[in-house]
Write a structure and sequence with these properties.
By secondary structure, this protein is α+β, with helices and mostly antiparallel strands. The protein folds into four domains: 223 residues, Immunoglobulin-like; 143 residues, TIM Barrel (Alpha-Beta Barrel), CATH 3.20.20.80; 80 residues, no CATH class; 129 residues, Immunoglobulin-like (Sandwich), CATH 2.60.40.1180. The strands form ten sheets. An eight-stranded antiparallel beta sheet has the order 1-2-3-4-18-15-14-12. The chain has an eight-stranded parallel beta sheet with strand order 30-29-28-25-21-20-19-31. A hairpin with a 2-residue loop joins strand 48 and strand 49. Helix 7 packs across helix 9 and helix 11 runs parallel beside helix 12.
Length: 812
């Protein structure tokens, strides 16, 4: 509750409503609330003088956006929000219907330079986001520290780990909002752990500067966050194929043997990764001439075999004076390394031994660092892996550099100054990946850079994809992967994955098989393992396991048209590829809470239409409950309608009551199967099997229509481009939209729009087929002409030449 104030404190407060918001002062503290858009606010608070108005996370156009507001007593309103300031700067944000969305629980608490902002928490308020924090999907009742940390073998209770993404979604009563706390220092979040009637966030120093983004639907919050910090750019198509990695494939012959075996065993794959052992003495931007004597030819041979090579390029530069080591020599000549307080370069031990560290908050240092990729780009390396960029340093218990190390800011939009590592730490990895992304783009100006980073900050999705770091080969880590990736998607990092099979340790055969199966439906599918562990490749446990693993990798390739279409949506509007159920079904539960809370967060959506339902306790053998959201659903593997038989009484009475309106099915775990369901009304683009994205699929593009109930929505789309260049930004893409209608007599009419864009689609013909039709028609009409219907896997369909005009297909 708000603190009780004396009359003197109340009199001391002044509230001034401006054309775009308000400012208020009380007891030497100033509060500023600015309306950026109708549903977006920026809140700043300071003592004495305002902090610098600059941000590494927020796009300049969004940060400086303004709209006119209407004045109220001690506040203002926009078309969607009302803001009021009570005594002692007590801030309340309501929707226009009067529902309180966020209210202070008391004044900001200052202790020296540190501070904490307290908000009232509703009895049924829930929170999501904060990036790759381990643990449940729902952050309620938990507390976290954001401080990028090298956390080898992290576990469920480990905090902090690699990323600091101070953005979260809040939900109460079916209304969603988002908060970005834009502070790069060590920060803290408490979602009701200390006091279940409050949530709070704060920092050891830096600004009180946060953004309030209103839904009320979760999709709107994600669009607002993308508007604020930028969506992730569309990666190359090949990056959505299967990827094989290890620490390390060395020597060269071992990597080539893995490539050969993948092709020999017909396991589709697109990318291979090299960890640090390909380098000379672990020095970044070198190649060991003994273990990799033919590096350029090796890269070329892999390309001829349709593999893309990704190499690690750690940021620490070996301290090698007078050793003809160009990264050190040119970096020293350009004064590009961070310094001790006395002005000498800071030197700390990492993989190559004593190392220096680029000063990435200087734009000229990032430009220099980008040039270091020149030889790799010339050799045809396709992607780069920014690891150890928390930054990790081996000497100290903190696992990073001393906090008094000095960084220089020389960046448009920022005051030129020096800051300590306390302020720079959480953005160091982000600016490292920015340097890599921009540098590779400069070297290949019309090609999409592919950069993977371990550490980052809010907005870092603009420069790199990511993964969950050094996980473990346990069933529990497989289970934790889903909420981690979902929360990363809710934090802007839609293009994310986890080391399949677990990095630390050796998975038993069943665990590796199940992990490969589940990962086939996640944004990045990379099998990776640590040095000293047993091999992870799909064939290592014999033909039976290899066949199960191959089946799911193959299915990923059949789904690539859908996966790529979803990825392109992400690159425009920030909607995560891997979604919680509440993103598409925010009102599915009877009590208004997110449906995922009752299901345990094990189920997830890939895009809007595919629901993947792995066992929430994957090591258990007992049957488990699947909760389908409202509406008609189909079994992806059989095409038959799901949820109509085999219903189970929920074991948990609370779950049963919450999800009473939803379909409950009892599933028996099977090693060879991951249950996958398709939303009724979905139109799913599919292709024939290929061994890599370089291969042109044979036969037609399939648009599989999952027939909805009458008067229910039915739609889908297909997006395609050349898969690697930036030409799509200039209109060189292909997009069609599809819809369907079901008549009272069961007839299904499918309408395809005229194509958008100038890209010539690789498929010359299209097959439209039906799953769930009331009967199997003998023929169909296409724009009034009769065509014969054929069956494929028991699904009726019709094949026809692709047209540049709208097309109407009717199955009577």
């Amino acid at each position: 509750m708000a603190a009780l104030l004396s009359p003197q404190a109340a009199i001391a407060q002044q509230v001034h409503v401006t054309s775009n918001g308000l400012t208020a002062t009380a007891n030497g503290v100033t509060l500023e609330v600015t309306a950026l858009e109708q549903d977006k606010l920026r809140i700043r608070e300071w003592r004495t003088t305002p902090p610098e108005d600059a941000s590494w996370a927020v796009l300049p156009a969004s940060r400086t956006s303004r709209i006119p507001v209407s004045a109220d007593t001690n506040g203002f309103h926009t078309q969607q929000l009302a803001v009021q300031v009570g005594d002692n700067l007590h801030l309340i944000i309501r929707d226009r219907d009067g529902h309180i969305l966020q209210e202070d629980a008391g004044p900001t608490v200052w202790r020296g330079d540190s501070f904490r902002v307290y908000k009232q928490r509703g009895e049924n308020e829930h929170f999501f986001g904060l990036g790759d924090k381990p643990g449940p999907l729902d952050r309620t009742g938990q507390a976290f520290t954001l401080w990028n940390t090298d956390s080898f073998g992290w576990q469920e209770s480990t905090d902090p780990i690699y990323k600091s993404i101070p953005f979260f979604l809040g939900e109460e009563g079916g209304r969603y909002f988002g908060v970005l706390f834009d502070n790069t220092w060590r920060t803290w979040f408490d979602f009701g752990r200390e006091n279940d009637a409050e949530y709070s966030f704060g920092s050891q120093d830096g600004p009180i500067d946060y953004y309030f983004l209103y839904g009320p639907e979760p999709r709107s919050v994600m669009a607002a966050y993308a508007w604020l910090t930028g969506p992730a750019p569309l990666p190359p198509l090949w990056s959505f194929g299967f990827q094989q990695s290890r620490y390390s494939y060395s020597p060269e012959s071992q990597l080539m043997d893995v490539a050969s075996r993948l092709r020999k065993d017909k396991i589709p794959a697109d990318a291979l990764w090299l960890d640090i052992d390909f380098q000379k003495d672990n020095m970044p931007f070198t190649v060991d001439p003994r273990r990799f004597p033919n590096f350029p030819e090796m890269v070329s041979q892999l390309a001829r075999d349709h593999f893309h090579l990704i190499v690690i390029a750690d940021l620490h530069i070996a301290h090698k004076p007078n050793a003809d080591y160009a990264p050190f020599d040119t970096g020293t000549a350009g004064d590009h390394f961070v310094k001790n307080p006395d002005g000498t370069p800071y030197i700390g031990p990492v993989w190559p031994g004593p190392s220096v560290f680029p000063d990435f908050t200087r734009q000229q240092t990032r430009q220099w660092f980008g040039t270091l990729y020149k030889d790799f780009v010339h050799d045809g390396v396709s992607g780069f892996w920014d690891d150890m960029n928390e930054p990790a340093v081996f000497r100290y218990p903190s696992k990073t550099m001393p906090l008094d190390v000095q960084h220089r800011i020389d960046e448009p939009g920022f005051a030129t100054r020096t800051m300590s590592h306390r302020e720079a730490h959480n953005i160091f990895g982000m600016q490292n990946s920015r340097a890599t992304y921009d540098g590779v783009l400069t070297l290949r100006p019309n090609e999409r850079p592919y950069v993977m980073t371990r550490a980052s900050y809010a907005g870092g999705q603009r420069y790199a994809v990511t993964w969950t770091g050094d996980n473990s080969s346990t069933w529990n880590h497989l289970r934790m992967t889903i909420p981690q990736l979902v929360n990363l998607g809710l934090s802007g990092f839609s293009f994310a994955g986890a080391d399949v099979g677990g990095f630390a340790g050796s998975p038993p055969a069943d665990l590796l098989t199940k992990w490969l199966e589940v990962a086939a439906f996640q944004p990045i599918d990379r099998d990776h393992s640590a040095k000293g562990t047993r091999m992870h490749e799909p064939w290592v446990d014999g033909p039976e396991h290899e066949a199960m693993r191959r089946r799911y990798i193959e299915e990923r390739y059949r789904l690539l048209p859908y996966i790529y279409t979803v990825a392109e949506e992400t690159s425009r509007d920030g909607m995560p590829m891997m979604r919680p159920l509440f993103m598409e079904f925010p009102h599915a539960a009877n009590d208004g809470t997110p449906m995922d809370l009752a299901t345990g967060g094990a189920e997830f959506l890939l895009g809007p239409n595919l629901l993947i339902a792995p066992n929430p306790s994957p090591e258990e053998v007992a049957p488990y409950e699947l909760h389908l959201p409202p509406g008609r659903w189909y079994d992806y593997w059989t095409g038959t309608q799901a949820g109509t038989a085999g219903k189970a009484q929920a074991r948990d009475a609370e779950v049963r009551d919450t999800l009473l309106q939803n379909q409950q099915i009892l599933l028996k775990p099977e090693l060879a199967t991951v249950p996958v369901y398709v939303r009724g009304g979905a139109i799913l683009p599919l292709q024939s099997l290929v061994q890599s994205t370089d291969e042109t699929p044979k036969g037609p593009l399939t648009l599989r229509v999952y027939v909805p109930a009458q008067n229910q929505p039915c739609e889908g789309s297909l997006y395609a481009d050349d898969g690697h260049s930036l030409n799509y930004r200039r209109g060189d893409y292909f997009r069609i939209k599809a819809s369907c209608e079901v008549a009272a007599d069961g007839a299904v009419t499918v309408t395809l729009s005229a194509p958008e864009g100038s890209y010539r689609l690789q498929w010359e013909s299209i097959r439209v087929e039906l799953a769930g039709s009331a009967h199997t028609p003998a023929k169909a009409t296409i724009d009034g002409k009769d065509f014969p219907v054929s069956e494929n896997n028991h699904l009726p369909g019709v094949t026809f030449a692709r047209s540049a005009k709208p097309t109407r297909i009717t199955f009577p």
